[in-house]
User: Which sequence fits this backbone?
């Protein structure tokens, strides 16, 4: 006497249509942000900042020019221009050696961008502005000393 | 929200010089408020990108050591007059801004 029960159970059949993965439908941005180098930007000393950007064994190079004023009256705005004439320059990093947080910026260049960057940085004390350049799997560096006279008294 | 940026791209031969001025407080997180003595929280641009004629030419990471209202100039080879230049930044609070110009 349970044939009725059988037919009822059969009715509830596979209704599960699996949704198609939508991964391919994502909007592709025109430019991609690199992951922020947290370890580097939070380093409080020069050695660990250099290490975090892979510049610990950077070789001094005469093909990098660091243009900055000899004396900066205002350490909050120090114009800096870095030019790398090393072929295949992939990235340029700017470091303020005596800044509380030495690593200032890392620029990755690609698709025809020259090894050149000009910007304005903050400097906490008289020290070297260090440029670290990556090219062809090697790192190179150059520096320029900037005297910072906070308060503008010309000391 | 973010204020507008100034951007200009000038062509010299086949090299475009892209110059850009952004409006941002660039707070390092180390400065103390003169009145209260408490640290002003970090608020600075973390990433900047630039595309010229649809190809990405720069991808930069910044800390708080870049001056307030940042200035940036780069040079890009192989650019043509009329190429669209786009500079975009994003900060540690998720704010972002974009500016466009054409190479001329």
Assistant:
């Amino acid at each position: 006497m349970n044939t009725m029960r059988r037919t009822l159970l059969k009715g509830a059949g596979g209704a599960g249509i699996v949704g198609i993965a939508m991964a391919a439908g994502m909007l592709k941005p025109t430019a991609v942000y690199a992951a922020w180098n947290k370890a580097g930007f939070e380093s409080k000393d020069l050695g660990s900042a250099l290490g975090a950007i892979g510049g610990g064994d950077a070789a001094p190079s005469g093909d990098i020019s660091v243009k900055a004023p000899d004396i900066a009256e205002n350490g909050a705005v120090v114009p800096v221009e870095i030019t790398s004439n090393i072929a295949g320059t992939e990235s340029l990093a700017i470091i303020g050696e005596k800044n509380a947080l030495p690593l200032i910026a890392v620029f990755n260049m690609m698709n025809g961008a020259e090894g050149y960057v000009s910007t304005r940085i903050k400097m906490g004390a008289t020290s070297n502005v260090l440029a670290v350049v990556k090219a062809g799997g090697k790192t190179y560096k150059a520096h320029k000393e900037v005297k910072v006279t906070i308060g503008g008294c010309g000391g | 929200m973010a204020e507008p940026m100034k951007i200009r791209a000038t062509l010299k031969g086949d090299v475009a010089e892209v110059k850009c001025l952004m409006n941002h407080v660039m707070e390092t997180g180390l400065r103390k408020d003169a009145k209260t003595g408490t640290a002003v929280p970090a608020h600075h641009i973390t990433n900047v990108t630039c595309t010229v004629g649809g190809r990405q030419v720069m991808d930069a990471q910044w800390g708080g050591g870049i001056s307030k209202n940042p200035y940036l100039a780069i040079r890009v080879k192989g650019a043509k007059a009329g190429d669209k230049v786009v500079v975009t930044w994003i900060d540690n609070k998720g704010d972002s801004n974009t500016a466009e110009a054409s190479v001329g």
User: Anything to note?
Assistant: Strands of chain A lie at 59-60, 64-67, 71-72, 78-84, 89-96, 103-109, 113-121, 127-135, 138-148. Chain A has one domain: 36-148. The longest strand of chain A covers residues 138-148. The interface with chain B takes residues 30-34, 36-37, 40-41, 76-79, 94, 96, 99-114, 116-122 of chain A (CB under 8 Å).
